[in-house]
Amino acid sequence: MTDTPDSPQPLQFGWEEWVSLPDLGVPAIKAKVDTGARTSALHAFDIETFGPASRPKVRFTVHPIPGRDDLIIPCSAPIIDRRDVTSSNGERELRYVIASKLSVGGDTWPIEITLTNRSSMTSRMLLGRQALKDHISIVATDRFLQPELSYDVYHTARVRTAQPKRALRIAVLSREDNYSTRRIVEEGEARGHTVEVIDTTRCYMAINALAPEVHYDGKRLPRYDAVIPRIGASITAYGAAVIRQFETIGTFCVNPSAGIISSRDKLYAHQLMARAQVGMPNTAFAASPKDTGNLMGLVGTAPLIVKLLESTQGKGVVLAETKKAAESVIDAFRGLKANFLVQDFVKEAAGEDIRCLVVGGKVVASMKRTGAEGDFRSNLHRGGTAKTIRITKAERDTAIRAARVFDLNMAGVDLLRSDSGPKVLEVNSSPGFEGIEGASGKNITGALYEMIETRVRPVPVRRRKSGTD
Question: Which residues, by range, are in coiled-coil regions (predicted)?
Answer without folding.
Answer: none
